[in-house]
What does this fold into?
Amino acid sequence: MFTHHLIRDFMFTDATYHNKSASGPSQEYQPPSSRQYTVEPRDLIPSDHAAEDSKLGQYTRGTYTKDTQAVSSKFHVLLDDIHSKKTLSFTSVSDLSYTAKYYQLTTLDGNEVNDIDHAPNWFGVAVPDGCKDFSNVIIYFHPGPTQPGSGWNDKDYPARNGANGGSNWKELFGYVDRLGTQLAAAIKAYGATPNQIVIVPFMPNALCNVNIGGRIGSAGILPDQWYYIVNDIIKDLARQ
It folds into this structure.
């Protein structure tokens, strides 16, 4: 598990450092369907959920109670070591900061959408400190949440908890913490342009694992609605 996380961190830091622009479509993008949903910001503060998961704060800082999350020190690997296949050298980057946001899918008239048939319906967002240009968006897909030692139960997805004996779904928000510090480290340690944000759609196993529910890796509503969801998140960030 450590190796897998390490490899993903290498790849993510490397990609954010190079920050290469996509070639883009040959013509203006046209969404495949009309807008059905929007998103609204919510708070996810671990201490508010201590009764359901006293250890939630060990997995994620959540959206915290301040605008910015401060990380005193984070280990990273020099990108030159990765490219040259040298022995990896771990070093520490201090005083990293980012903002973590949580967005809830809602209908156009403001009703929350929580059921598993309309997933993903909650999204984590990480914005590195100093970012004012939100035009470069990374959509990060987490692995299938049922992994050895984990056990997130799809039955608990609508309530975002672990009532059926599995892990608490809110713990997955830890991906936002890790990716937020990776973005911040790419900027501080390597001089990456602060114009990238990362959006994490949290999905049940049925949408990202193989041979579950007949919807193999379908990503649920995203193929039809991602354009509207991403744009609504960007507009909200720009208002902050």
Q: What stands out?
A: Residues 187 and 193 are 6 Å apart (CA to CA). The longest helix spans residues 2-18. The chain is about 25% helix and 20% strand. The beta strands are 37-42, 69-77, 90-107, 122-128, 136-139, 196-201.
